[in-house]
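User: Can you fold this complex?
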Amino acid sequence: MEMDEGLSGFCIKGSGKNNGSSGTKCGRWNPTTEQVRVLTELFRSGLRTPSTDQIQNISTQLSFYGKIESKNVFYWFQNHKARERQKRRKVSIDENDFISRDNLNNKISSSKRFFEVMEYQSDQRVIETLQLFPLNSFDENEQEKLRFHANECREASSFPYTINSPEMDLPPLDLRLSSL
Amino acid sequence: MEMDEGLSGFCIKGSGKNNGSSGTKCGRWNPTTEQVRVLTELFRSGLRTPSTDQIQNISTQLSFYGKIESKNVFYWFQNHKARERQKRRKVSIDENDFISRDNLNNKISSSKRFFEVMEYQSDQRVIETLQLFPLNSFDENEQEKLRFHANECREASSFPYTINSPEMDLPPLDLRLSSL
DNA sequence: ACAGTATGAATGAACG
DNA sequence: CGTTCATTCATACTGT
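Assistant: Here's the predicted assembly.
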């Protein structure tokens, strides 16, 4: 395997993993559970795109829990934000083919996809919690709403899904690339 | 952590597996042989990085064979591509190694590695076959060559956010946003 | 039952 | 920012 440990990367993270997880090699930042916890909290408090100063501060504070650089914090937020959106995008597409976007009621006939949707909701719920300060990353929520359409137009070609969904009568199978 | 994604619902997949691949526990997607077959076919037809639409379509079509979400398709291609690359990298390294070592002493006689190389050359050769559409994922080989750069220096910070520091003698921990 | 492997999933890092 | 790459974690699978 690859037990090259003697390199300049140093690992921390030996912080007693209870569930015996990661072996933990280094070379890349491997956040402590505490670090992740804090970052997540900040994120859920509404912070999305921390300023340089904020990054510095967060990084400094988190260094208490283990090795960390500001770029790690930067990337973390970048990724977390991006993936939240990505996830949301994917799910809403997946869920599309039977929930006509708001169904007016929890009619949700087929429960098949139900769980997936639930999951995200619970993940998103508390965004408002700590919305009490001047973040300069203000109103992320607002901004996000505004930004909400620009993203969709990526491949304008593919919008068969949004509202209708009788397309579940898929022709048994035609997977020539052209048909995708 | 972010395990909100881990539970993708439940299992289906009872579709009689010949060689007993019908694991059928859940927690993670377990593709049907049919699903794998199709995915592989697409891959060999040249598809590497399907767009969101394509992912969606594929997913929908494959759902005919069993439960599947678009993220599964996404990951599948991600992984498949990565592993192909990985494999190739290893082999070419091995081969360099092999050549430089044995070249002087011997004519290429041992052959073990040859087959491996052959194998996916033949695997790649067919890329053009179905290249009749806008796949947007073209000729991975070329792209890969271009991409061949600084993958090494993980530590060197080419990072815009590094040059800042003076303040902050960290108070043990106060991460309320206001304090950032 | 266990070691080794194949592969789904997650995520840090970075590119365009 | 959205995407893509590399690496790692976790689990299903397979052979012994």
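The mean pLDDT of chain B is 62. The radius of gyration of chain B is 23 Å.
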